[in-house]
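To whoever is on call:

I kicked off a structure prediction for a single chain this morning and the downstream step that reads the tokens threw a length-mismatch warning. I double-checked the sequence; it's 177 residues and nothing unusual in it as far as I can see. Pasting both halves so you can look.
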Amino acid sequence: MNHLLTDNSTALQALMSETIFSTGFSIDNVERRSEESSDAVAFDSSSEEFVFQGDKSTGVLFILRYPEFPYFSPQAEEAFIKTIGALQLTPHNVAVVNLANPQNPNEFKRIMEFFKPTKITLLGVEPASLKLPEIAHNSYMRGRVATVFNTFSFEEMFADVEKKKLFWGEFKTFING
């Protein structure tokens, strides 16, 4: 697939049906990123040990592994915001970490030390990948410091309404408990 790169305003006006706003990036950056890999995800980076969104001080942590996106797919992000919003949470008062980001360690001990969570939700991340004991889907394991809730990714729930129903019932209990 060829990528069309132009800064010609007349050409852009002819090709686009929506208003375009600049985000301050330059064409040079886009071309360099495109040359590096047209299929690679541009993950966020940070000077901290982990790259994450939100606020880690609340003790609520969502762990996911989306190699195709910096955090969620657009559809999953919308579902995530609606889901946590129904429980009076926002993307700003929970922490979200994508373990597919190469900067993020996939070690549970380091996750615990950095985030200091009390409630952890694994969204499609198998507990065994973090060297945790087996936890059935839509159930949780209480530890000394944190409780880990293991559930499906949003994509799995989109494909199976029954998975979504099972998730919602247990997730409400987990967050409110």
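Update from on-call: the warning came from a stale cache, not from the record. Cleared it. Sanity check on the structure: Residues 52-176 form a domain with the Uracil-DNA Glycosylase, subunit E fold (CATH 3.40.470.10).
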